[in-house]
Amino acid sequence: MSALAAAAAGPVAVPGVAPARLQHAPQGAGWQRHCAVGGAGASTAQRRDVAAAAKRRLPSKPGRSSAGGGGRGRSAPRDRAAVKELSVALKDGRQRNGSGSGSDGSGGFGGSQRAGRRGRSRGGSVDEASDTEGDADWDEELLADLSDSEVAELIGQEEAGAGDLDAILAGESAEVADAVRAVLGQFTFQLDGFQAKAVTRLLAGKSVVVCAPTGAGKTAIAEAAALHFLSRGKRVLYTTPLKALSNQKLLEFRERFGTEGAGLQTGDASLNIEAPVVVMTTEILRNMLYRVDEDGGTADDRLKDVGLVVLDEVHYLGDPGRGSVWEEVIINLPPHIQLLSMSATVRNPEDLGGWISQVHSECETIRTNFRPVPLTWHFCHAVHSEDEAGGGARRGGGGPAAVPPQPAARLLPLLDEAGGRRINPALLPPSKRYGGEMDGLSDDDWGRWDKKGKMRLRTVEELVGSVQDDEWHSLPRWKRIPSLEAVTLALKRRGMLPAIWFIFSRRECDLAASQLDLHDITLTTPEERAAIQAELDALAAEQPEAVKGGFAEPLLRGVASHHAGCLPAWKGLVERLFQRGLLKLVFATETLAAGINMPARTTLVAALSRRRDGAIGSLQHNELLQMAGRAGRRGYDTVGNCVILQSKWEDADVAWDIIRKGPEPLRSQFSTGYSMVLNLLYTRSLEEARAFLDRSFSRYLGGMGAQRRLAEAQRLEEQAAGILDEVARRSGITPQAEDLWARYQKLQGRLKEEKRAAKLLRAQLADERAAAAELLLERLSMPRLVGLDLSASNLGDSDYRLPALLLCDLERGTTGVWVVEAGPDYLCLGADNKLYQVGSRHISSIAEGPHPIADDPAACEEVLHFARSLRSRSWAELSGDVGCAEGSVVTALIASKLLLPADLAPVLPSVEGLAALEEQRQRVRAVKAQVNVIKADRAFLKASKAFNKQATKAAALLERAQVLRGEVEEQAGSSWREFEELLAILQEAGAIEDVQAAQQRSQERFQQQRQQQAEQATAAAASGGPAGGSSDSSSRAGGGGDAGDGTRLGFSPLGLVAREVNCANELWMALVLTHAAVQGLAGPQLAAVLSAVIASESVSRPSVWTAYSASEAVTAAVLELEGARQELAALQIRHGVEAPITVDLRLAGLVEAWASGCSWEEVMRDCSLDDGDVARLLTRTADMLRQVAFCDTLLPPLRRSARQAMAAMDRKPISDLVA
Fold it and tell me: What is the pLDDT of residues 980-999, one digit of tens each?
């Protein structure tokens, strides 16, 4: 019997509830329902309960009609708001009409509704119907359908016929077809269609860009192509963006090609680098392409036996900090080498393929949404009802003394069941799901369609159940967050383990692993536990310091954390155990999604926002898909699962919004730096260097869009001119007055740009002053009298400083003082009797001599005691990340004695920087003066009054046009302008010879050659022998490249050193290495100085402290370097170049101790950093020492010290783990 027949046969009996009644309406009017909820047959208590639930979840709106309710003041549509699925989408867009009985209390109502749109109440007024039109656009956008390609990307479906090998080989030569079949025949499994297509194009001699989801099997393409090239006697270079990924690929290729068949070359290790297949980081290949041998050999000579270069994770080309490396590799790569570029899903892979075809060789783009294991999406939230919690989250048995049940975790589909084109309506609160348009519901909103398209009546049990299903939406967001234990047990019950749980915080990852251990949750069997113990014992025997303290027991339970704060050996252990299936749940940061091979059955995303660039930002579509792509193990799982968890900040609609946006495009991050300028000028002329910059990916993208942008700018300008002409015609404005108004608008735009430049320059000078203040405070004791600049902007004016007593460094140890969220550096008591938490950029002057208050320990302790007594609510955060709290009567007495002494010396930026700032301020004042002249003109006042109404619109159009033209101009010449500014700095610093001097030297050399040739000819004529051939004495003396007219730009030793080192600021590092202050340092002291220079690029955590302080020799050397640092800072400010030139001594003592032989336990005993952070700093320092040791331009004693320090530092746990 069908549902409809059953409903017609009689009412459904529900104990204690009056049955629903159904009567047939006249033909054409549809079915009329009289339901127990809100109808005449319902009891008063039932109507009150359901209406109350509806009222809680859907607040009433003013002006809403109460027609159709069970009585005056009670609205039937309010009751219907309690129903989970009030609006059922009609098939094929058919419109169903119903009629109601008005407001006679019968409970019936009529209305019409079109599929996908909210209807309008038949009984309500137009104003009432349009009352919610403002919300309609947002809801329709939220419920918008995904396209077929977007659905395919989310779930990973393959195109029809994509795997037909005969179709793929159609059109290829017989030789290529045979080669493809021979290669594919060496695999024990059949390659997917996109893999076979990529291999075919590579064997046909083309370069290939492959864009496929994470986990689709792109590495198999590289292996297949490698088999072919190796059979032809060619080598293969496989590049990755990460050292850890390079190590993993080496192990994989050793299994495939044998131990001797694969090698590794990274900044830390060089193993079998002449092997047929060599894995390396992309930066290593980039440096190889620039290197010139002593005999003049270039990359073409060294790579003549290489047939294929694989660029894995090529979407790193869009990384702001490292993207240029990939572009330099592609541009510099010899044309005889084919490229296989493998990328995760991006929006515009065809652009990358087209650019490679233009700058390197013919390239074909292959993109697919195919995933070998389809992906399903879930949303998880907490449920607090006992019915839902059954089994998994209840603890302590079922007796009276049992522990109250924990809220269970419920998983709902993120996408709807109708093809996954929309968000699951059950995840939206009723206010978003129905948009408040309750008066326009059609008759079928109270029913449910069966599979045959027939309507059956929804029972009272279903209606009340739908109200309960929606109850979680009314809870505060923090109550919807499921507990770790509940989610873990839910995954275990559903068979969704092993899983990777992404949490964007190292600390939270560790806490999560510990919490599951505290709750006694075990996910492993005794056999698995024994296998884990064996691996743990082996690691403890080899590297006891690598065993993460307190996390051995969670590991045995099948739970671990994995992030950059762990030592490499521990991360390697976690990866191996997870790959073997012994670990069931790993809490990891987003770095695990970047290529490391750790496939799972399920991935979980704890939040949809993360910290980036000092602020909190939403996840990008590509980032979310990258993490989700780890789900689904080929050969093990039939489906992969991605679970989005309810968080404190986001609901399911945020996940849907990220998904709807689609993949972000791959954008060029090409930027010039000291290294690029030096390498280009060492091997190219100025014209050739400029041609190189013109071949960048950014220029390719700019060329495609430049014409479109210029056309759009012209259209906007014409539209603005039309608006102004019409206003002038109507108002009788003269052309001169109109010109004045247009000039005024342009000057306003220029004034904005000049102010922006001044602000940027002021920020750079503030950073320079902050670095100088930090350096001074490092060698001075505390407490100390200082002057505060709370705005951090009064750089050269000593009148704007507040005398203050600097009490302590908030980053060093536990002070007991509550620290504001911004994370300041120092605690001060101001002369205004206020406590301040400030950063180094707020310190404008420092007293180096004694002071009565600073030298009074009792007074300072009184202030510290008061500061410790303050709670968080006592502190306010001022602008500029300054914490402030009111003082007390006791502190007032101390503050009154803070008089400005004569020796309070200002901390100033460089004189050149202040001069540049003053010059920029002069420009701002000059533009302001021109603006004021125009504003005083009566003709302008008349024009401004006439244009006032339309000025905003016209100005917006002109500003948009100016932005478009500026983008085109900036893209056209920005790289070359940056190149010229960097070249000017290098020349002023003495690293590269000036162009004019090089031309003069070239002319002198040419004259010397002519004179030598004449002398040889005279000697030959006198002896009767043949004239000697012309000698070429233009060989590279000190290095250099041809200038545009054939002259060579000479390189000084400083320039040669800067070219050979690799760091964030090569010129600054070269100045350090060639300075007299470091030449006599011993190995440990040299390591400490280098670590202070590179600390900012190795450790980014704000709160850093250690018990080890730098030695006097290190501090003295850094102080001697300060003059050179300030000169370079002034040069960079004058030329508008941003490159780090910081010196951070906070961890220099720790590095010095490690290089002196201290054990790992000793250096980590009193340190605020994680193990992984310290290991990364030590590894980066050792890498820099290695570069110094092999730099022939440097003096032998310095290189000898570098070799000694490198040998002392290269020990466990930071030594290379690959054997």
Answer: 899 999 999 999 877 666 55
Spatial distance between the Cα atoms of 122 and 109, rounded to a whole number of angstroms: 9
The DSSP-derived string for 1000-1045 is HHHHHHHHHHHHHHHHHHHHHHHHTPPPPPPP---S-SS-EEE-TT
310's enclosing H/E stretch is: strand 306-311
Residues with Cβ within 8 Å of 71's Cβ and at least 6 positions away in sequence, in order, are 105
Phi-psi region of 156 (alpha: psi -120 to 50; beta: other; left: phi over 0): left
pLDDT of amino acid 960: 74
CA distances from 1171 to 874, 1077, 1197 (A): 35, 31, 32
How many C-beta atoms lie closer than 10 Å to residue 1218's C-beta? 15
Tell me how far the alpha carbon of residue 3 is from its chain's centroid. 53
34 DSSP β-pair partners: 21
Q: What is the largest CA-CA distance in the chain?
A: 133
pLDDT the model gives residue 951: 62
Classified as helix, coil or strand, 819 is coil
In Å, how far from its chain's centre is CA 762? 27
Q: Are 472 and 558 in contact (CB under 8 A)?
A: no
Instruction: Report the distance separating Cα 966 and Cα 510, nearest Å.
Output: 48
From the centroid of its chain, how far is CA 1020?
A: 71
**381: which DSSP letter?**
E
C-alpha to C-alpha distance for 315 and 467, rounded to whole angstroms: 47
Structure tokens at 297: 């050999």
* Higher-scoring residue by pLDDT: 1193, 717: 1193
Neighbour tally for 1043: CB within 10 Å? 19
Instruction: Tell me whether residue 1117 is exposed, middle or buried, using C-beta atoms within 10 angstroms of its C-beta: 0 to 12, 13 to 18, 19 or more.
Output: buried
pLDDT digits (tens, 9 = 90+) for 852-908: 888 888 889 889 888 888 877 788 878 767 888 888 878 888 887 786 555 777 888
Q: Cite the beta strand spans of 312-407 per DSSP E.
A: 338-343, 363-367, 375-383
CA angle 1007, 1008, 1012 (to 5 degrees): 120
674: confidence class by pLDDT, cuts 50, 70, 90: very high
Query: Which contiguous run of DSSP H or E holds residue 502?
Result: strand 499-502
> Which residues have C-beta within 8 Å of that of residue 1185, sequence separation ≥ 6?
1086, 1087, 1090, 1202, 1203, 1205, 1206, 1209
List the one residue out of 605, 562, 604, 606 whose CA is nearest residue 583.
Answer: 562
Would you state the pLDDT for residue 25? 33
CA count, 13 A, side-chain hemisphere, 69: 19
Alpha carbon of 414 to those of 503, 727, 737: distances in Å?
A: 20, 53, 60
Phi, psi of 2, deg, nearest 5: -70, 165
User: In terms of C-beta density within 10 A (0-12 exposed, 13-18 middle, 19 or more buried), how is residue 145 classed?
Assistant: middle
**Sequence-ordered list of residues with C-beta below 8 angstroms from that of 387, at least 6 positions apart, any chain:** none
Within 8 A by CB and 6+ apart from 633, the residues are 373, 599, 600, 601, 640
Look-up: residue for tokens 């290495």?
Answer: 1073
Smallest CA-to-CA distance from 153 within 324, 442, 371, 434 is with 371
pTM of the model: 0.68
Strands 585-588 and 499-502 come out as parallel
